[in-house]
């Protein structure tokens, strides 16, 4: 027997044994399910069994992929040990970053609304309002995607909508504060956001308190159509009563990004308009302008520094000193000679407050409950 004949005989023996083993394996896999026993009998060859086995495995993989659900997003957005600074290209240990400001280049990272409240308001003085106000799909579009998106964003952001409103004290001065949160649907302004801010301004007008509006938004919420655009006029009307008729103060703080309908309404209606360094401030965003007009837009054109140079905002204040600067502005406002009446009281805990008695007398049983 030649060497070639020996090799052919060995290969044939190996192939027959492997084919028999695979057929037994396929037989065991299929006959393990009693429902498929009849299916096995109908097969005319081992090759058919092996083909059907491979097809069943592929179908199982496809079913598993369809049923797969990705893990939930972390309950605390931005949680982690490190942050990458896009300006100075450095990795920063998050516990060493004060108020989410890069110590090397002063780049201001985004902050959650709760973090901003803790930054501005004195400890144990925050009193939120309208926390249970929930958004609904009033437009009732031909899809349920908006309802599903709301549920996902509420779980992800840990809040019912894109703004938190309430009352508190800033270094002893009672204020009404609204803080938008970009993590919820890009901080978009829907019916709930507009209603909560309007109610806050109306209560602040009644109690003669200054209003601070911290903006971080991509604009009006397109899923709510004209109802979201209506919030621009509603908030602006409430601010007119607050500022022009009652001579009360409103401060707008523009953070990155502040665009669209928020920029076109209450974002630019403050008596003082303050921006954080490097904040993105615009009506139409860079990408929208480039796509519509086919022109290239310089990124620095819509930054706070350039907006300040063109007179659209009053101050650019770093986050680390923002709280103290606002307090000093309030002191200047209290002593302004053009004001015809006392506009808002100092803290009732301040023994040196000349307006303490007025503040105490202004609260009676007939006033609305917060």
TrEMBL record:
User: Keywords for this entry?
Assistant: ATP-binding, Chloroplast, Fatty acid biosynthesis, Fatty acid metabolism, Lipid biosynthesis, Lipid metabolism, Metal-binding, Nucleotide-binding, Plastid, Transferase, Zinc, Zinc-finger
- Per the record, the domain of life is Eukaryota
What would be one Gene Ontology cellular-component term for the protein? chloroplast stroma
> What does the record list as GO biological process?
fatty acid biosynthetic process; malonyl-CoA biosynthetic process
Signal recorded as keyword? no
Q: Recorded E.C. number(s)? A: 2.1.3.15
Ranges where the CoA carboxyltransferase N-terminal domain occurs: 81-348
Q: Which reaction does it catalyse?
A: N(6)-carboxybiotinyl-L-lysyl-[protein] + acetyl-CoA = N(6)-biotinyl-L-lysyl-[protein] + malonyl-CoA
Q: Which cofactor does it need?
A: Zn(2+)
Q: In which pathway does it act?
A: Lipid metabolism; malonyl-CoA biosynthesis; malonyl-CoA from acetyl-CoA: step 1/1
Role according to the record? Component of the acetyl coenzyme A carboxylase (ACC) complex. Biotin carboxylase (BC) catalyzes the carboxylation of biotin on its carrier protein (BCCP) and then the CO(2) group is transferred by the transcarboxylase to acetyl-CoA to form malonyl-CoA.
Q: Which family does it belong to?
A: Belongs to the AccD/PCCB family.
In Swiss-Prot or TrEMBL terms, this protein is called Acetyl-coenzyme A carboxylase carboxyl transferase subunit beta, chloroplastic
Source organism (scientific name): Spirogyra maxima (Green alga)
């Amino acid at each position: 027997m030649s060497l070639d004949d020996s090799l052919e005989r060995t290969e044939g023996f190996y192939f027959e044994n492997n084919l028999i083993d695979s057929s037994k394996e396929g037989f065991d896999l299929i006959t393990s399910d009693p429902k498929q026993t009849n299916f096995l009998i109908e097969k005319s060859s081992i090759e058919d069994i092996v083909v059907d086995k491979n097809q069943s495995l592929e179908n199982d993989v496809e079913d598993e992929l369809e049923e797969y659900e990705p893990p939930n997003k972390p309950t605390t957005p931005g949680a982690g040990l490190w942050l990458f600074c896009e300006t100075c290209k450095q990795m920063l240990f998050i516990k060493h970053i004060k108020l989410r400001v890069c110590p090397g280049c002063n780049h201001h990272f985004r902050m959650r609304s709760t973090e901003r409240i803790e930054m501005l308001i004195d400890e144990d003085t925050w009193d939120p309002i309208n926390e249970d106000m929930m958004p609904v799909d009033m437009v009732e579009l031909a899809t349920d995607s908006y309802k599903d998106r709301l549920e996902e964003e509420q779980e992800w952001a840990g809040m019912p909508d894109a703004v938190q409103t309430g009352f508190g004290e800033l270094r002893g001065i009672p204020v009404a504060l609204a803080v938008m949160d970009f993590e919820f649907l890009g901080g978009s302004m829907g019916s709930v956001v507009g209603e909560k801010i309007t109610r806050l301004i109306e209560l602040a007008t009644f109690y003669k308190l200054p209003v601070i509006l911290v903006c971080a938004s991509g604009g009006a919420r397109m899923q709510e159509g004209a109802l979201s655009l209506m919030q621009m006029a509603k908030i602006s009307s409430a601010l007119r009563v607050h500022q022009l008729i009652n001579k009360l103060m409103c401060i707008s703080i523009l953070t990155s990004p502040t665009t669209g309908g928020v920029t076109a309404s209450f974002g630019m209606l403050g008596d003082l308009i303050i921006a954080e360094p490097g904040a993105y401030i615009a009506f139409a965003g860079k990408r929208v302008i480039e796509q519509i007009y086919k022109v290239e837009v310089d990124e620095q054109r819509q930054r706070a520094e350039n907006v300040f140079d063109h007179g659209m905002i009053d101050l650019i204040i770093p986050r680390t000193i923002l709280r103290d600067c606002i307090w000093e502005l309030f002191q200047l406002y209290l002593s302004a000679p053009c004001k015809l009446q006392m506009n808002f009281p100092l803290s009732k805990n301040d023994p040196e407050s000349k307006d303490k008695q007025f503040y105490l007398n202004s609260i009676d049983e007939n006033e609305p409950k917060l």
